[in-house]
Amino acid sequence: MQSGLELKGISKQYSEGGNQVTALDDVTLSVAPGEFVAVVGPSGSGKSTFLSVAGALLKPTDGQVYLNGHDISALPDKALSRVRLQEIGFIMQSSNLVPYLNVLDQLLLVKKMSGKVSPEDKTFAVTLLEELGLGSKTKRFPEELSGGEKQRTAIARALVNDPNVILADEPTASLDTKRAHEVVQLIAQEVKHRNKAAIMVTHDERLLDYCDRVYRMEDGRLTLVSR
Ligand code: ADP
Questions:
Q1: Which pLDDT belongs to residue 154?
Q2: Cβ(49) to ligand 1 under 6 A?
């Protein structure tokens, strides 16, 4: 059984005003645990659609998505929601933190959504926050954090359920260069340390050195540009 995330022959068509738009055209990609893969490409090339299919938010028109060898593209919606919550950590462009929860509670909310919160869960959440340099900020609210601290909280939140897969969609879009490097370096560090299969969509070519492989999306087709 292949572990990690595997997309095989993925196509996605949208119908728009009676026309068919091909957003993804026969895309195949495997990401093993501990691998950090970047996807670059112009606007409209299919990157968001690709990440939505990889994250089980959108069903492909054709092809399969395998998570640790199981075809998740065939699962019913309820099972898919469970897979998303347990097995996939999302890091978005803006951190999307809940304004009235402190940093630690942002993480515990995610744990609560999947069941009861144990003392071990809390210890793990604090460990993650310490790893991400937020050990002294656990009681802070989002409005008291810098942009980089918010994104670091979002990284910790993506990891708190110990998912197999991390998907990051332009995670540095709202950050200056220094913070952008810090945030991507931390994602790379966690991917290696915690053995996650990770994909990052980015416009920022300066951040690609942190990734193991770089792919380019163009007109819905994915090609390897460097490794
Ligand atoms: P990117 O993230 O690289 O900007 P997208 O995945 O958003 O690219 O879009 C790929 C193509 O699919 C574009 O031509 C876009 O217009 C089209 N598209 C995306 N979402 C939809 C949708 N919900 N309905 C119709 N067309 C869509």
A1: 96
A2: yes
